Amino acid sequence: MSGFTTRAARPADIPLVIDLQKQTWWVTYEPIIGKDQCDDMFARIYNESALLRQMDEHRFFILEADSTACGFASYAGPDPNGIFKLHKIYVTPATQGTGAGRFLLSAIEDQVKQRKGNEIRLNVNRHNPARTFYEKMGYRILFEEDIPIGDFWMNDYVMGKLLTV
């Protein structure tokens, strides 16, 4: 597959983000955290009002392949220490393995560099195979973090990458 592009997402894209996330969420996380936690977290994070609030705080981007949406990402920053945070990066299962994730992550890193950022961090579940992808992209585990969310916990690695500006 070729012809990847990114574009800034707008509030009008929220239904698209929800649709893309429906394609990726349970396939990605149910084997790791179970259906109950998947359902709970999706309801909290990917409803229209939650995404609208997130769009006020984060920069969202839609990934397209040959003009068809196939993923999205969001990041925020810098924090007081100058660190940017990748909050979300998802590509549809049909697009995984095509270079889509690499293209999208590189586009976000370029955005951070344009904003004079020199470090980006992300959280990944400690059992998520995506950790290997991030390591191939130059990210390293910095520390472990356990985050309560409702009746559940997110058991994550915080990974980081220094960017050359």
UniProtKB/TrEMBL annotation:
SUPFAM superfamilies: Acyl-CoA N-acyltransferases (Nat) (SSF55729)
PROSITE patterns: GNAT (PS51186)
Entry superkingdom: Bacteria
Protein name in the entry: GNAT family N-acetyltransferase
Domain annotation N-acetyltransferase: ranges: 4-164
Record keywords: Acyltransferase, Transferase
Pfam families: Acetyltransf_10
Gene3D superfamilies named among the record's database cross-references: 3.40.630.30
Source organism per UniProt: Ravibacter arvi
Signal peptide positions (record): none
UniProt xrefs under InterPro entries: Acyl_CoA_acyltransferase, Bact_Acetyltransf, GNAT_dom
